[in-house]
Amino acid sequence: MSTPAxxxxxxxxxxxxxxxxxxxxxxxxxxxxxxxxxxxxxSDDTPPPSNQxxxxxxxxxxxxxxxxxxxxxxxxxxxxxxxxTGGSNTPSSGAPGTTSTGTATTPGGPVQxxxxxxxxxxxxxxxxxxxxxxxxxxxxxxxxxxxAAVKDPNTPKFEQETYAGYLANVNLxxxxxxxxxxxxxxxxxxxxxxxxxxxALAMANDPNTSPDAKTEYLVLARxxxxxxxxLVNAYSPTTAAQIRSAADATVTGLQALQDQKTAPxxxxxxxxxxxxxxxxxxxxxxxxxxxxxxxxxPQAKAAAQQTLDARANVQQNPDYVRFLIxxxxxxPPAACLDVVQNRTTQAGWPDGSLWGLSDDACAGTLAxxxxxxxxxxxxxxxxxxxxxxxxxxxxxxxxx
Length: 400
Fold this sequence. Notes:
It contains 16 helices and no strands. It is an all-alpha fold and 400 residues long. Helix 9 packs antiparallel against helix 10, helix 9 packs across helix 11 and helix 13 runs antiparallel to helix 14. The protein is globular, with a radius of gyration of 21 Å. It starts with a helix and ends in a 14-residue tail after the last helix.
């Protein structure tokens, strides 16, 4: 029988990967401190060397349902916290707490001058990007906000270091984008990554964002902007493809949250999806850091690889497969299937899948499914049709 815990921790992991996924954060926390200093792809002033190949792209009528008691009482999964900051303890892929020259960031003095150089260089390069003015402005706003936070002596040290890491990563990624030897598809990919990281930074600084969520968004912005560093130091071609796929899924998920046409319709649902996106992205980054750590144990690396595999294979999650088979019984249009599959890739099972099911593209299919009282999935369909989908996990029928 599939339990709520098996479905929700970490939302992307099937039953076969559960033990490794749950154990993995401990392995990451136990890794040496040097893990946090992921090697840079290049120095601050040079793009990636021409002999370094860049990894290629990867390819309602009815009564209200009664919850299944076995599905209730699911515990919220919390991201690991770092000492007193309320932040995720995800090691950075982009050398958190350093400038792009690798110098530790502390307020004031020459170090702050190096952060200023990162910000100035990034701002100049952003102006040359082939992006809509609104997207370039969001990137510029993020750079300005990060620099101001580093300079402000009242900014907590963890945030200063995270903002400084963000600036270093953005600057290096922009240099990669502008490098003559960067392939067009890679240039487009890294530009998307920067757009996503800027959205995450803006969400971190939204006054409605809770303190814990703010810290998680800061970590997400820093680590997403450090994708280029992780790709250059990829553990294997398979890992490189998984890094790219995961980054794209995070970016498109963040963009869907920003679009009123695709964002969840209720505050509860918005919060649930945002949490899922943050948790999945931060766990993915932590897995990559362990794989790239030469001191990590074989067991830790195996668990980390299993976490990446689970994210890459989220659409093979047994419960999701059962759900999709049932949904197809009601002849959903291609647009409905596409949005369900995309949201599942972005936010996992079940959060992303139910987010997709609540989309307008699935409205007709959902109404038809809610009328079929013979289906064991009928309570779930009725719940998604009539309530916030974030309240509906308890109605997912048991397997077997």
